[in-house]
Amino acid sequence: MLQEYAVDPELAAIPANLRAISLLFNYSNPRRISNFPLTWARSVMEHAKSIGQMEEKHAEILLKHMQQESLCIRSFGRAYNQALDWKGNTANQHSNKPFHAILCDSGVGDVPSLEIHAANPRLDAPYTWPLTKTYANLTSLLLPLLKEANYVCIIDPYYSPFNNAYKRLFSDCFEVLNNRSDAANITANICTSSNRPMAVYGAGEQRKLKQDFISHYIPNICRIQVVGSLREDMHARYLITDVASFVIDHGFDVKDNITANVTMLSASDANNIKRQYFSGP
Q1: Residues pairing with 192 in the sheet
Q2: Does domain 128-277 have CATH number 1.10.286?
């Protein structure tokens, strides 16, 4: 779902370029800047400082927004050889595992330079798309986020861990969370409805629901909140994480003959939805 872009820190240090980049890359669309090297923002600052004091201040403000608000800079586990410059490292990494695109002022290896504007086809990144709800498609949507998210929130009024349409998919999803080395630091919030005719859990059974989740699915995760909601207006289905969030209009159950629309959420919308159903940060 997410698209990894290598962005030349020297190119990004130019104020007009950094402004354009900050508008293109955002939590609410699939574009992500690869934190490559792991000090990408610092590298941009160093190049901006070499240009001038005003450029350095401009970079500081925009980079703070990109790191804290847009949440568009992410680590994709790339190695960085300090003996090579950025373009040399990028060429090596691209040959091993291609970036979605490379933004630089000249070509990298056999990869041509990429102009920074939304009309460029390599920067096309729709925030909504159709998805046929096969097991393969749903795992491709969910698992990449669960492999790195520190916070996971699942909201689905019809979800049950014991319903066969959900069981295999979420068993695999929770296995990914459980097997992470930092599983004890992950926060998992799960909300299903306790006001549906076929609900496994009735009102007031949140404790049993939580115990079942812990014993069957996510025993290694310490911070778990499970809620059986009585809200009559609970219709949409969401996956909210600190990496990206989206709404899917036909739920997370596997149905090979159903096509759903997936729409990414802004960070503010994701936080507002999370607060509707769960307490805490």
Answers
A1: 228
A2: no
